[in-house]
Write a structure and sequence with these properties.
The structure holds 2 protein chains of 2 kinds. By secondary structure, chain A is mainly β. In chain A, 11% of the residues lie in helices and 40% in strands. Chain A has a 6-stranded antiparallel sheet, covered by helices on one side. A 4-stranded antiparallel sheet of chain A has the order 7-14-12-9, with no helix packed on it. The N and C termini of chain A lie far apart (58 Å). By secondary structure, chain B is α+β, with helices and mostly antiparallel strands. Chain B has 3 domains: 100 residues, Rossmann fold (3-Layer(aba) Sandwich); 75 residues, Dna Ligase, domain 1 (2-Layer Sandwich); 240 residues, ATP-grasp fold, B domain (D-amino Acid Aminotransferase, Chain A, domain 1). In chain B, strands 13-12-9-10-11-14-19-17 form an 8-stranded antiparallel sheet, with helices on both faces. In chain B, strand 2, helix 2 and strand 3 form a beta-alpha-beta unit. In chain B, helix 4 runs antiparallel to helix 5 and helix 12 runs antiparallel to helix 13. Chain B starts with a strand and ends with a helix. The mean pLDDT of chain B is 94. The chains are: A mainly beta, B alpha+beta. At the A-B interface, strand 1 of A face strand 3 and helix 3 of B.
Amino acid sequence: MSKRIRTEVRKGRGGLDRMSGSSAELTVNTGDLMLQAEMQKEIHQLVELLKQHNLTEVELERHGVRIRLRRETASTAPVLTVAEPARASQVVSVPQPQTPATGETAGMVTIRSPIVGTFYRAPAADADPYVEEGDSVKKGQVLCIVEAMKLMNEIESEVDGRIVSILAESTKPVEYGQPLFLIDPAPAT
Amino acid sequence: MFKKILIANRGEIALRVIRACRELGIKTIAIHSEVDANALHVRAAEERVCVGPADDALSYRNIPNVLSAAEITGAEAIHPGYGFLAENAHFAEVCESIGVKFIGPTSENIATMGDKAKAREIMVRRGIPVLPGSPGELRSEQDALNAAQKIGFPVIIKASAGGGGRGMRVANKEDELVRAFHAAQTEAKSTFGNESVYLERYFLEPRHIEVQILADERGRVVSLGERDCSIQRRYQKLVEETPSPVVDDRLRREMGRTAVEAVKAAHYRNAGTVEFLLDKDNHFYFMEVNARIQVEHPVTEMVTGIDLIKEQIRIAAGMPLAYRQQDIQITGHSFECRINAECPEKFTPCPGVVTCYRPPGGPGVRVDSAMESQATVVSNYDSLIAKLITHGQNREEAMARMRRALDEFVIEGIKTTIPLHRRIFNDAEFQKGRVSTGFLERFLTNGSG
């Protein structure tokens, strides 16, 4: 009897077609380390295929292992299901090494949206953005606006530091918990 | 007809609504909390929005986030399911004010029906039989005493804003009344934030019979038969069936007419359920109106062939009811078992990972569930993980199918109430249809009804 093991490839919140500041995190639940390494490679190839040809679903089967990568909508992370013959499963986290790590790396602080709404980088259409990449920011400084139901909510920085990257796109919807900024915090004095 | 609907719920009911939308060609938006990111209802929808952390007050019941999710996705309507925001009059009102259609009754319907004392008053004025009880809210101990003496003991004191069995106290004699009054008020205050209580005659072994109705926006109403929900534990339903084994055609017509009358008296819209209490002499008394689609709606769907969720959507879209009362036919018999992730001995929630989930199939078997293998039952939400529904040409066949389906149903990795349901369906008294609301408690204490 085959055992279904769920694996996810998260591409940040930008989706496959919006690669700005997105990262991939790969968690593979399987007891076989060799299978992990091979599957990683396979999975990356599938991700490339999906992107290049703008596909919705790609499936690959080999040696009794089936890998399926499905893109659900433009704004969600694709979900990957891996069906494997019965094996004792151990949870092993394999961080994705290849794409530049713009996800949560050690020490970085991710500012996430606390509400659902529309993300704006500037206070008005013709105004300058609150912050740019590379800017120094202070704790409490307004970084952006998330507008919900005609109310403009100012999102503040939680730390002193430097903006490493801007993870959301201005005028686009954001959900609760969606990463907005990556900040390299200033060392504590 | 709507092009996009946001489902403000999770689990099996969210999936249920998504299925109806699919059949109607309506695009769906699922909302979810962080812990539900991989849930089946989310993957089943075309779009998804995370609305908050696990705590449902901050996510599923977070009105600003839910409405914002509707705004950013362009949802034209919201289906609230049951629980969460389904009977939140304020939420329904805000939806109305921002131009998003709330699929259900009006906010005024919800507010009125949610005030149990007020609802009773409306019914009394209309001449609908209500449970003998206080005319309205009890404002003092003296009020309670006067009402109880008029109505006759035993009495039960209930929270006006209440439900789910909380804020209720029974007084068998006069000297128990004052204590019951204060205890009920205190619990009402702490559970519902409102200490208003009223009083009713208490029946020891009543049957809980509820009638499903549909009302369109022109005020046309039909009733779709009754459901017998007498198998309850601490006022939580476990098994429901339709038709009720003790309701004959004449009584059904009478209760149906009364339910329609009650709903018209309240200018009620969309789907709703009128709850009655049936005493040993088959007198029925109005209890309350549930202003929402209910958990047990599938059994009505099985015997009428009518998809209640689609009807809700159609009514909300302004379409007139496609059925007249004479078009509603009840065919056969149906049961539903609510399968909860609970330890069978203590009924405490039993969260965990479902290592194997294999629902039953075959003729006359329906499973409404968002559970799947390798999914995690989280502890943050209610413990209902699946509804097992059967239908048969008659009560015996529907029961036999339920016994078979309960035997086939595999859920491993967590404890469920399936063993309890098996015992219920193998019980002689239950099989004869001779059960009232006291059945299950006795069954659990003695091991038999």
